[in-house]
Amino acid sequence: VRSAIQSKQRRGEFVGAFASYGYQKDPANHNHLIPDPPAAQVVQRIFDLFEQGHGKVKIAKLLNAEGIPSPSEYKRMLGERYHNGRKLDQTAYWTYATIHRILQNQMYAGHMEQGRSSRPAMHGKARQLDRAAWTVVPDTHQAIIGQTQWNRVQALLKQRTRTPDFPASQSPFAGFLRCGDCGRAMVKTKGAGGIYYSCGSYKRYGPTVCSKHSIAHGTLEQIVLDDLNRLLARIPDLPALVRKARARPAPRSA
Predict the structure, then answer these.
(1) pTM to 2 decimal places
(2) Cβ distance 23 to 31 under 8 Å?
């Protein structure tokens, strides 16, 4: 089955369950894609806005403010039983990541782009592959974005890519904090009152997607320390455990 699917991909036939946003399966041939006019107009607008200097977060905010359904919501509105594994079920709005993926997707230039992940075992977890390993077949369907504009946008994407400048002392809570309302990641912010963490969705996209709330770094640190102290207090003989750990010989280096 896997070999048959890979053969179809190499021939430029679409084998996915759901077409990329902006396209739909051809009723006469489900392995061929044709533009979906309402969504295709949104895709064209995203590329135009980006070329005009709008950032990805600004584009997402604009689409959310206008009430344009996100790709996941649009598919569900059409009655498709679609689930996007990249984001939470309740996230029904445009995000930076969604705009970024659309701007990089070669499908919109008319080139079939498939084989982005590999599943070693039938019931195993899919593993994302490097872009160089994806299966790309040129000129398989009608383009929504002309090749000239596509090339210009890819050049702009490379120009605007910045290397993150992480501080030497990274927060111990990095990657662990989630918003209690929407479930998205909390972000670190420095203000006059010190360091605090707030909902990343609210900070990027405003009150239409989540509520305004935050927690100070000192408060969060104290909560964690209190929990650790409670756990340590339950250990019957902590000093003896520490002495035993210190007496254990260090592992040999290879």
Answers:
(1) 0.65
(2) no
CA dihedral 38, 10, 129, 109 (to 10 degrees): -30
Phi-psi category of 115—alpha, beta or left, where left has phi over 0 and alpha has psi -120 to 50? left
Nearest to 220 by CA among 203, 237, 198, 236: 198
CA atoms within a 13 Å half-sphere pointing along the CA-CB vector of 191: 11
Q: What backbone phi and psi angles, to 5 degrees, belong to 223?
A: -60, -45
- The total of other beta-carbon atoms located within 10 Å of residue 19's CB is 21
* CA angle (22 as vertex; 20, 24 as ends), nearest 5: 70
The single-letter code of the amino acid at 56 is K
Average pLDDT over residues 234-246: 77
Amino acid, res. 98? T
Are the beta carbons of 92 and 184 closer than 8 angstroms? no
Give me the half-sphere count of Cα atoms (radius 13 Å) on the Cβ side of residue 35.
15
d(CA 71, CA 200): 20
Residues 6+ apart with CB under 8 A from 97: 86, 87
Cβ partners under 8 Å of residue 253, min gap 6: none
Residue 72 structure tokens: 């996941």
- pLDDT, position 163: 47
How does pLDDT run across 24-54, given as a tens digit for each residue?
A: 999 999 999 999 999 999 999 999 999 999 9
Q: What was the pLDDT predicted at 107?
A: 94
Percent of the chain at pLDDT above 90? 32
How confident is the model at residue 87, as a pLDDT?
A: 46
CA distance 246 to 47: 60
